[in-house]
Amino acid sequence: MTDLKLFIDPYEAPYPSTVRELLNDTDKKKANICATVTPLGRCLLICNNHIYVWSFVKSESGIPHATHMELPTTGLKYSVQLVCLFNKSQASKYMSLLAISPEGHLRYWSELGKQPRNEQCLLNNEVAHSIQQINSLG
Fold first, then answer.
1. What GO cellular-component annotations does this UniProt entry give (predicted)?
2. What 3-state DSSP class applies to 37?
3. Alpha helix positions (H), the chain
4. Residues 78-103 pLDDT 10s
5. Confidence of residue 2 (pLDDT cuts 50, 70, 90)
């Protein structure tokens, strides 16, 4: 039987200043904080009802800029499974974001940081656990 050795190469990328300030100033015991890295080269950080999105690919300026958006109000906790970051088309350079609260309030940003569109999804006393992007075949 052979031993398995796992090596991880660290990837350093600076946090945007707004995210660094948020993490330093937030009471970690009371806040709902979760984060993920997407295949699109973006980081998502959710803190309570706020989401911060930034690129982890190093830019020429060196310090990334985070876009801050307010998620729909909820009495429950958000998770990264309740948001979906995507490009509307291959040619689009702007990212879009769709978020759903556990109670079914949808918020859609056609472009990050722009005015969102709000909709209500009737869940019949159920709770949303995730939202998924399904790519069309045609």
1. nuclear pore outer ring
2. strand
3. 17-25
4. 999 999 999 887 777 889 999 999 99
5. confident
